[in-house]
Write a structure and sequence with these properties.
CATH architecture of the largest domain: 3-Layer(aba) Sandwich
Oligomer: single chain
Strand order of the largest sheet: 3-2-1-4-5-6-7
Largest sheet: 7 strands, parallel
CATH class of the largest domain: Alpha Beta
Helix content: 40-55%
Length: 420
């Protein structure tokens, strides 16, 4: 009865979901493509060939979850060379990221909206040997369809913030039924495991965070070295994966306090590049685009990172890295990549998406917390003038990233047991 009421509510909201896609398509036309996949209809689509063998399915809702799966995909390819991998996503940027990272060797599609018929059609069409859901995506009808059709379903690299746990706790019966339907859960931390277990998850294990196992790609580090030659003598402050509202705060502080630094500003979402460029120009700051593919002029104050798939290169070119999504209430973007490259890391107060990682990184002397945009610029200036502190933070960051590796192998063993 609980799932039936949930399904009824989902179907009632479906017109809003289609309208949402249309509105998003005004800024990102890719939302209009692969429309039938949102309803679980995959036949006859030329860019989605039929599986040619046994299939391992990974669901990664968007960019962060897709990137987190990198080391796991490598391990799965080695363990199961005769299997294909299917990636499902909910956003065009997630889909584009998996294409950039993994190429045409993998299948990719949109996961349908969580309606009973659509989820059954999805599972019956692809018939995966196992389903692997990354991080926090919990869809009751998807879980039920997998159980009904005997597909083991794992939630891996699982995280659940206190805020999200309170949201799920508002519907305790539905949350319990959904979580209990999973074959196993691989949690990032003890706190995540405790929150998931309290809501009804079973067979919960703490296996660590897959993002620690992502090695900075050599070609990205090489690209960073090339870009560094274009920067000249600038000290580069990277604002990585910034979210809406944060750029204005950072630019205002930079206009007051930036001094001799070059601000490398990389918005999280590519559809906002032009919007952020307008924010820069409205403040009278001299702007240059990464896509110009030219040397950074001596007079340039803000270098706009308007590219996809180059974040490791941006970390490599920077002297100091600030992690976006942490100034305002977005819960922070991934700070592990900056640590892995060995950069001094600045982090704002909103970290609920990486709560345990952030707390551990601060305790390890790998991350310097800042309260607001002015504190961010002042901390960057301090690091520019204090070589010893800057070097210490960078060393601690790299050590911190290396010390927490190993989640991929532990997660692979969980998958092997489930496949058996």
């Amino acid at each position: 009865m609980v799932r039936w009421l949930y399904s009824l509510a989902t179907m009632a909201l479906l017109p809003w979901a289609w309208l949402h896609l249309l509105l998003r398509a005004r800024r990102q036309p890719e939302y209009l493509r692969h429309w039938d996949e949102r309803s679980g209809r995959y036949s006859g689509q030329p860019d989605l060939p039929q599986p040619s063998g046994p299939l391992i399915w990974i669901h990664a809702v968007s960019v962060g979850e897709t990137r987190a799966a990198q080391s796991l995909v490598v391990a799965l390819r080695q363990q199961y060379p005769d299997h294909q991998i299917l990636f499902t996503h909910m956003t065009p940027t997630g889909r584009a990221t998996s294409a950039a990272l993994f190429g045409d060797a993998e299948l990719r599609a949109y996961l349908p909206y969580d309606m009973p018929g659509a989820m059954r059609r999805f599972v019956r069409h692809f018939r995966p040997k196992i389903g692997i859901v990354m991080e926090t995506e919990l869809w009751p009808n998807l879980v039920f369809a997998c159980r009904e059709l005997n597909v083991p379903l794992l939630l891996v690299n699982a995280r659940l913030s206190e805020k999200s746990a309170r949201g799920y706790a508002r519907f305790p019966n539905l949350a319990r039924q959904t979580l209990a339907g999973l074959t196993a859960v691989a949690a990032q931390s003890e706190a995540d495991a405790a929150r998931l277990s309290a809501l009804g998850a079973q067979n919960v294990q703490v296996l660590g965070n897959l993002k620690f196992d992502i090695e900075p790609p050599a070609q990205q580090l090489d690209l960073g070295a090339q870009l560094r030659q274009r920067v000249g003598k600038h000290t580069v402050l990277l604002a990585a994966s910034t979210r809406e509202g944060e750029e204005a705060l950072i630019l205002d502080a930079f206009a007051r306090l930036g001094g001799r630094m070059l601000l490398l500003l990389v918005p999280r979402h590519p559809q906002r590049f032009a919007e952020v460029a307008a924010l820069v120009e409205s403040r009278g700051l001299r702007l240059q685009w990464r896509s110009d593919d030219s040397a950074v002029a001596a007079a340039t104050q803000v270098w706009l990172g308007d590219s996809m798939g180059e974040m490791f290169a941006y970390y490599a070119v920077s002297d100091i890295a600030f992690i976006g999504g942490s100034l305002l209430d977005y819960g922070s973007q991934n700070l592990i990549e900056a640590c892995a490259v060995g950069r001094p890391v600045l982090l704002g107060p909103s970290t609920y998406n990486f709560a345990q990682v952030a707390a551990d990184a601060v305790a390890a002397g790998a991350v310097l917390p800042v309260a607001d945009a002015d504190a961010l610029l002042l901390a960057a200036l301090r690091l520019t003038d204090d070589d010893q502190l800057c070097s210490s933070l960078a060393t601690n960051a790299r050590t911190f990233a290396e010390r927490h590796r190993g989640a991929t192998e532990r997660t692979l063993q969980l998958i092997i047991r489930a496949m058996r």
